[in-house]
Design brief:
The protein is about 60% helix and about 0% strand. It has about 100 residues and is mostly helical.
């Protein structure tokens, strides 16, 4: 409805819309990982890298190379856990958006 009036939705001022999308995806995977009852070897790596991704996003637009490295580590850590695949895909999609120019 706002668009029909020529207004843009409020996303926090000049904040890049990719940043809150990344934070939401990372938050979802962190919650699902915390609720996953089975321990696995690289769980700590995934938790650490997700925390790093969230910290990068809190600082504004993250460095793409570092973001992709973190994604690779997270995917390697939880990639075989099918219960987390949907949340992992959402994080991957959010990271891939940083390879594109920000939407106006």
């Amino acid at each position: 409805m706002l668009r029909s009036l020529g207004q843009k939705p409020v996303t926090g001022g000049d904040e890049d819309p990719r940043v809150p999308a990344l934070r939401a995806a990372v938050s979802r995977l962190r919650r699902e990982l915390a609720g996953y009852p089975v321990e696995f070897t690289d769980r700590g790596i995934a938790e650490d890298e997700l925390a790093a991704m969230d910290a990068m996003a809190m600082g504004g637009v993250p460095e793409l190379r570092r973001l992709r490295r973190s994604l690779l580590l997270v995917a390697g850590s939880v990639g075989s856990v099918s219960a987390l695949s949907g949340a992992l895909t959402a994080v991957r999609d959010a990271v891939e958006r940083f390879g594109e120019p920000p939407r106006a």
